[in-house]
Amino acid sequence: QVQLVESGGGLVQPGGSLRLSCAAPGSMFSIYVKGWYRQAPGKQRELVATITSGGRLIYADSVKGRFTISRDNAGTLYLQMNSLKPEDTAVYYCNAVHSPTSDDYWGQGTQVTVSS
Fold first, then answer.
1. Which residues contact 109 (CB under 8 A, 6 or more apart)?
2. Which value, to the nearest 10 degrees, does the dihedral of the CA atoms of residues 86, 34, 96, 66 take?
3. For residue 88, is it left (φ>0), alpha (ψ between -120 and 50) or beta?
4. β-strands 110-114, 10-12: how paired?
5. Which 3 state secondary structure label does DSSP give 85?
6. Which tens digit of pLDDT belongs to each residue from 54-100?
């Protein structure tokens, strides 16, 4: 139904950088992209970073100081990932909420692999 568009994943060496982006189609209304999650093999999906309704930036302890979440004026969500570690390897998902119904929506996931 509602398809979030993600981009920016890929393969990088340890210490490298990637920038992920996520947006709802321009034709969609009242959709707010708000956070990034990731899931590694055999692990539960975990919160990486999110922007609260009040504009507060929240990060998982494991990425503090290395990742930066932001949202531009068009509503596109970004995750700047620096100093990447092998432990960051996972499928990264963006999350959005449909304001009128409070339904959650997810991107298809983008693979981030950090390896030499």
1. 6, 39, 91, 92, 93
2. -10
3. alpha
4. parallel
5. coil
6. 899 999 999 999 999 999 988 899 999 999 999 999 999 999 988 88
